[in-house]
Structures are given as structure tokens and as C-alpha cells.
Amino acid sequence: MGALMQLLSARLGVATGKHLAELCRQEYPPWATRALWVMTELALVGADIQEVIGSAIAIKILSGGAIPLWGGVVITALDCFIFLFLENYGVRKLEAFFAVLIATMAVSFAVMFGETKPSGKELLIGLVVPKLSSKTIKQAVGIVGCIIMPHNVFLHSALVQSRKIDTNKKSRVLEAVYYYNIESILALIVSFFINICVTTVFAKGFYGSKQADSIGLENAGQYLQEKYGTAFFPILYIWAVGLLASRQSSTITGTYAGQFVMGGFLNLRLKKWLRAMITRSFAIIPTMIVALFFDTEDPTMDILNEALNVLQSIQIPFALIPLITLVSKEQIMGSFVIGPITKVISWIVTVFLMLINGYLILSFYITDVRGALLRSSLCVVLVVYLAFIVYLIVRNTSLYSRLCSSTSKSS
């Protein structure tokens, strides 16, 4: 599903020469544009809190506890200036920096994977025939949210424009789309491999154990050290290096996405450093609050982490519906408009994601929401949420045109 959405996003960016947020501003009325911006910013803030806290935890581990969590947050907050510095020397330098981070992350987690010596047979069975307990629906939905990140859909349509492509020549656009597709698939394969390594390490090491209920980002490395580490194999620090590399790449990606999202939706023409400061502030302020008032070894931090994953997941429709709508419009895409089969598959994926989100929200409402006032307030929020989704879906249909026509005639 992630691959499909990345390919559609790249296709949109290459064929139109504009990114998704810019096209949304042109396609939708101002109120809908601002609402989409707010939803995307919420997803960005949720992701950034996770990434910055993860980086801060890694820095705390690597410093032997000398740098407190809030200190790690401050250090991580400054990484946007690294990104600006590298971008001044060209996008290729920035891409090379990301490649180093991703390679570091992949090697770190691969080393841990090799050390745990998991069963290849069990791993393949789990991939082909996955099993999911009803008690883990929230975690499963959260995983969807943190893999198909809404802001990354916007970002990918912008990143493809770093190459100069003559959009007037169909052969050049087709060639660019072909190579971007290969690039996206390779990137997702690497991401998939890293996720497999991390999941397998913890499944092999702690499934069914007493420690399983208390493992979080901070004490995970210590548990791994006790289980697999030696004086000559410091798995604690290998874990911390991998964690730092993964979170740094994600925080810089989030900052980059925030600039395109803000500039595209709001049509702001600000200097890069100012836009970076504004988009960074949206996430750093709540992250600093989390760092100061939450104990990372407390289970509350993991509950917060799950909630932030779910927050991103419920924002997915506000990235995917505009994306599918735009790539399906011949007026926008020209000869590069998607075919009926791709369109149907894309809508099936989007509806599936909305259904699992709906299941999660319903479960939360039934089991966790207490009190008439809270339930009533949540109902109002859900009605507005669903109404906006319905609006985005039907806006470009003949039904919506007929309704608008009949309304204007009656008025």
C-alpha cells in the first residue's frame, strides 16, 4: 500500500511539475485547503514528537546518561540547520547524507538480527500467513500510520522535482516516472528489511517473557545488552546508533516535508531558514513538554507513542483522497492520468485504511470513553471528521455538481 501511494505521488509531481500541497490549494476552496493543512500539520507534529524523543533517548544512551532527555531534544531541534547547510551545497549532498544515515541504521539493525539467530522458517511463515490478536488492533493500526505517513505522501511529490525534467516531452516524463518507481521500490524494500530486523529481534528475544510488558525505547537497548551483549559486543550502543540514525533521518524528512506543506497550502514565500524555524517550532514545543514531564521508562510514554501513531493513521485519508482525486483528473495529469484499474485499486486501499481506522475509533469509543459530556464532544468531532472525508470524496463527482447546481437554482 505504501509503494502504491508513493508511486502515485511521484507520478503527480513529475507529470504536473507541482507538488501535492500546491495542487490542493488550486483544486479546493480556501476553507478546505486550510483544513487539509491543519490535518497534515497534526500528523507532522505527531511524527516529529516521536522522532525527536527517539533521537533524544539515543543521545542519552550514547552519552551514558550525561545528556538528559530535554538536552537531546534541544540538540535534535538544531538538525534543521544541518539540513539547510547541506541543501545549500545541492540536493545531491543532502541525498548522500540520508544515504549514510539509512546505511548506518540498516547495518546496526542487521547486526542485531544476526546476533539473535531467528528461525528463518518461522519468519517466512509469519510473512506469508500473519496472525493478529484482537488485543493488538491499536498497535496494528499504529504501524499503518507510521509506515504510510501522511506528510511523506506530500513530500514525495515534491522531492521528484529536484531533477530537471522537460514535462512537454512525454518520453522524458515516462522515463523519469520509470526511474522514480525503481527508486521508490528499492527504498521501501530497505525500509521493509529494517522493520523485519527490529520486529524479529524483539519477538525472538522477549515474546512471552516478563520483560515484554515493560520494554520501551530507552530500556530496550539495556534488555538487548543483557540478553545478547558481551563486553566485546556492545549491543546497547549498536541499538542506540541505529535508533539515532533512524530518528535523525526522519526528523530531517519531517522538517523538509513541513516546508513544502506550509508553502504549498498557505502559499507562503518565506526564506528557507524562517520556514524551517516555524515548522520546527510546531513540533519542538510539545516535544519539550513531553521531555520535561514524561519519564521515558514509564509505560505512559509507550501509550503516548501508540496514540501518536494512531493520530497519523487517522490523518491518512486527508493525504490519500486528494492524491487519488488529482491523479485521476485528466485536466491536471493530461496523458499521464491513471487508468481505471489503478484508480479502483487505489480507492480500495484508501477505503480499507479508513475502515480499519473506523474500527479503532469505534473500539476506543466503546471501551475507553466515559461520561456523557466527553462522549457527546467526541461524537461532534467524529461527525465533522466524517463529513470532511465525504466532502473530499464526492466533490469531484457528478452528484456534487448536481447538488451545487440545484442549490444555486433554488437560491
Automatic annotation (TrEMBL):
Q: Which UniProt keywords apply?
A: Membrane, Transmembrane, Transmembrane helix, Transport
Membrane topology note: Multi-pass membrane protein
Membrane-crossing residues?
A: 61-84, 96-114, 140-159, 179-207, 228-246, 277-294, 344-366, 372-394
Q: Where is it predominantly found?
A: membrane
| Pfam families in the cross-refs | Nramp (PF01566)
Q: Does the keyword Transport apply?
A: yes
Superkingdom of the organism of origin: Eukaryota
Which PANTHER family does its entry note? NATURAL RESISTANCE-ASSOCIATED MACROPHAGE PROTEIN 2, SOLUTE CARRIER PROTEIN FAMILY 11 MEMBER
Q: Which family does it belong to?
A: Belongs to the NRAMP (TC 2.A.55) family.
The protein's name is Metal transporter Nramp2
